Amino acid sequence: MHFLIVGPGAMGCLFAxxxxxxxxxxxxxxxxxxxxxxLEKHGINVEGVTGEYRVHVPAVTKNVPGRLDVxxxxxxxxxxxxxxEGVRNLIGSxxxxxxxxxxxGNVEILEEILGRDRVxxxxxxxxxxxxxxxxxxxxxxxxxxxGSEGPPEGPVSEIASAFNxxxxxxxxxxxxxxxxxxKLIINVGINALTAITRLKNGRLPEIKGTKSVLKEAVREAxxxxxxxxxxxxxxxxxxxxxxVCRATAGNIASMLQDVLNQRCTEIAYINGAIVREGEAxxxxxxxxxxxxxxxxxxxxxxxxxxxxxxxxxx
Length: 314
Description:
Blueprint: E1 2-6, H1 10-21, E2 25-29, H2 33-42, E3 44-48, E4 53-55, E5 59-60, E6 70-73, H3 80-91, E7 96-99, H4 106-114, E8 119-124, E9 127-132, E10 135-140, E11 144-147, H5 155-165, E12 170-173, H6 177-197, H7 208-228, H8 237-247, H9 254-260, H10 271-281, H11 286-300
Parallel strand pairs: 1-2, 1-6, 2-5, 3-10, 6-7, 7-8, 11-12
Antiparallel strand pairs: 3-4, 8-11, 9-10
């Protein structure tokens, strides 16, 4: 299959490298010419749980070579609309569009711009950290799920087969919406707190204050899902979030990576999504509102924030 990977971040580089290693044709699409040229010259360097290897993946800013089968959207949620508008005239009307992004609303934006019948939602529990341009640490493995499930010989099954051959534990389902909400709940409990405290995932349940805030953020989000009739893919949401914290104890959450690198975060599509959904339903979400406001304040004031100060100089 020919995959176009849209966005050379941690997850984009990981999927590009693994799919290319498995024998697929893979092209990376980047909006930055300098970065695309660097990737074209140096390839992708992967380290971590699947070993250490370097893979050459063609990188372009336009003029995608050959016929595409799938465009895999790997940009941040706040970049989804721009990315969709950018690829609309590059890929034609045939390729399927697959998103495994964090947050709520990506599928709807892609459907609006690229067409409802060709967009596939998905979730992944793969963990990756971008160490430098084209250099990614595969921090942990987990299940990848794609919907909607099609016939055994259909295109969705072909994508799942390609992912499995590339080392991603992948299956298909009929209803992906509940799973997207399931991943959202986990991100609601973890991402903003790590961004604010600058702690790795595993520390959140160990500290009384962060665990208390985590519990309330998850409780509010679950109240929203229950009101919407969402069937979460686990029986105990709070325990599931705590399990993920422990299972990914050494991981630097994506939102914390963004804050450390002074980038725009996905807060509006994670905790902010719970706030918006709560407002529409008349459900108060004060903890998620506060977390959203703090992270937004952080990302709006990167240039004004104080660095560490040595007390001896005061």
